[in-house]
Amino acid sequence: METRYTICGMCGTRCPVAVGVEDDEAVWIQGNPHAPTGSALCPRGIAALALEKDPERPQSPLVRTGARGENTWRAVSWDEAFERIASGLRGVQAQYGPQSIVLSHRGGPFTDLYKAFANALGTPNIYNHGVTCTRNVEQACASVVGLKRDRLVIDYKESRHIVLQSRNALEALNLSEVAGITAARANGCKLTVMDVRATVSAAKADNFFLVRPGTDYAMNLAVLNVLIAEKLYDREALRFLDGFEELEAFVRPYTPQWAEGETGIEAARIVKLARELAEAAPRVLWYPGWFTARYADTFVTIRAAYLINALLGSIGARGGMPISLSPKDITRLKPLADLYPAPAGPMADSAGWRQPGLLHRAFDAAVTGEPYPVRAYISIRHNILASLPDPEALRRRLDKLDLIVAITTTWSPTAAYADIVLPLSPALSRESILGAKLGLKPQFFRRQRAVRPRFDTRADWEILCGLAARLGLDKLAFTRIEDIWNYQLEGTGVSIGDFDATGFVPLASGPQWKTLADVTLPTPSGKIEVRSRVWSASGHDALPPYVAPERPTKPDVFRLIPGRMALHTQSSTTNNPLLAELAPTNSLWLHADRAGALGIVDGDWVDVLTPSGSVGRLRAKVTTGIHPEAVFMLHGFGHQLPQETRAFGKGVADEACMVGGLDREDPLGGGLALQEHFVTVRKAGDA
Ligand SMILES: Nc1nc2c(c(=O)[nH]1)N[C@H]1C(S)=C(S)[C@@H](COP(=O)(O)OP(=O)(O)OC[C@H]3O[C@@H](n4cnc5c(=O)[nH]c(N)nc54)[C@H](O)[C@@H]3O)O[C@H]1N2
Ligand SMILES: Nc1nc2c(c(=O)[nH]1)N[C@H]1C(S)=C(S)[C@@H](COP(=O)(O)OP(=O)(O)OC[C@H]3O[C@@H](n4cnc5c(=O)[nH]c(N)nc54)[C@H](O)[C@@H]3O)O[C@H]1N2
Ligand code: SF4
Ligand SMILES: [Mo]
Hints:
The chain is an alpha/beta fold. The chain is built from 21 helices and 25 strands.
């Protein structure tokens, strides 16, 4: 038996794994023992073996035979699929220009190839899923410290007090984060969790704050208030801060007593937390947020979280957020994107003063023709009809397109709405381009093919390079992954063989990081900015007054909160043979008092309604572990495709409850505000 080191693809974390292989088939899988996370793996990682064998995924290229969305298909050869796509793209390019083609992907470390493909096509319109995931935290980080979010390393392991706000790190997993938190806890690190429901992370916490949904900005302003009023801040840190006096004046009215009325958390607990954090400073970590497409004020909430870290001196400190080396300081992979020039001209999202990247707005251009028409869409590992809100409204926008192509591993509503489906090999049976990681120990890493693809599926490099060849884009028409890897490694001093022993190549011998004293921050002031000068220059106040969130006013109306569990990834594993058995459906968490008033008991069927009507039926989970204003459901359920027999008809899709959601953004950060939606809950059978 041979052991092959590769990279898990079951979620965006991409943990290093080791696969035991016999006759080109996987016999076992575990974490890569050479990596810091060791041989541990999460349940989804193990279920990668079941995904490889699962026949309920697209097994060959498919062309639709009925109307769009009718879900009837004809299997075709790769040749025919490529020819159809190439001629479709050429037609759109000729009539509307190359910029009328939009691509989107799931993000991550292997996307240089996708950018290369977009450049080769001549379109600036390539988007990741950020608008429904990390966009607000990225923008907040840029506005406070001027750096990309991943330059501030989350150093759980060395921390003495971790605050998880809107972050369920022990269920919404990243294995290395769990390892870091566990190690820190073993060393006496405190854990504070702020959530609207009692999660596994909350169960492990020293302090659990069950906050009113959407009031975290109030909490953060009150913590800033205490840190300043009681002079608990790190005086040294002030020299790196632009606008301390302004912050002091701004947070003065936001006392803990005031915040108690907003958040529901007693003032004394807020004061105690601020004091405890100051005691542990600078080795404290107020987690800024990951899934941050939540509220209309999430961007400013996260800014306040960064400012708390700044006052505590944790930005640039071990056990807080040490600053990683910049890509310029280390050996870089040669960008594939440079094979073709990046197209000039604006993206189709009409982002105005904001950073472009608002994918949902690019689909508006399909309807309005502004700033120019959008006519073709290629989804690369991106299930937009589940991950953008309000699928009905999105379908109406997609109907304006001449061509939709879905490159996907699993069935999804996006694939079912495509004209052509290109089946992607799951991660264990595909290679990826080489990846690079920053962090404290920068490295290059390699996903190699561990097992043979079971069906007529291909790797994304094979698909995009094959299409490039068909379109005459010869510089990108690679036919061997080794040629791509060699191209990327040119000038780095690293060779492909260097990956054989462990699957990765370290770029530094020990931990490497910088403090604030070692860097000049690329903000206009060169400092941490209380009130972002960039945002101010465009006429926007990045430190606005607190506005209380809307509250549900009727007995059967609740704010809808989506989220994750350890056994599934978003919408993509719901039909996995192993995971569907363990977690076949979602349920609706609601507070016991409010359920009682509606005559609902635990396990009852309930209907979830929006102003447009019923979205579906699921079982109630009646609990005191959720804020009374909220209901919670796991994202990723409510699948409607009969070919997914295990997931079909089970549970409710939260995105379908978000009517009008394509037009609700955080105005300053640009992330979609997915948690600004209310639903009506009725006991099933009621009128
Ligand atoms: N309503 C609502 N919307 C949300 C969210 C929510 O909670 N509620 N969450 C948001 C967040 S945080 C995110 S990140 C996005 C996620 O939304 P997406 O970025 O669309 O991610 P997935 O739903 O995981 O779908 C990704 C696609 O990747 C493909 N894939 C490729 N390779 C592999 C592989 O090796 N294994 C597996 N299993 N799949 C593979 C799958 O076929 C799948 O179609 O959704 C966001 N949108
Ligand atoms: N197992 C698993 N792990 C994953 C993923 C997965 O799909 N499955 N997805 C990965 C991805 S793409 C992402 S973005 C991350 C997301 O990681 P997280 O952001 O941690 O995940 P969520 O479950 O969306 O949200 C965390 C918590 O925020 C709480 N919350 C909601 N509203 C509020 C509020 O107003 N205030 C406060 N204080 N809390 C609130 C929710 O109840 C939830 O428990 O997880 C990653 N890890
Ligand atoms: S957290 Fe789990 S699913 Fe995600 S990459 Fe790691 S092992 Fe795979
Ligand atoms: Mo995400």
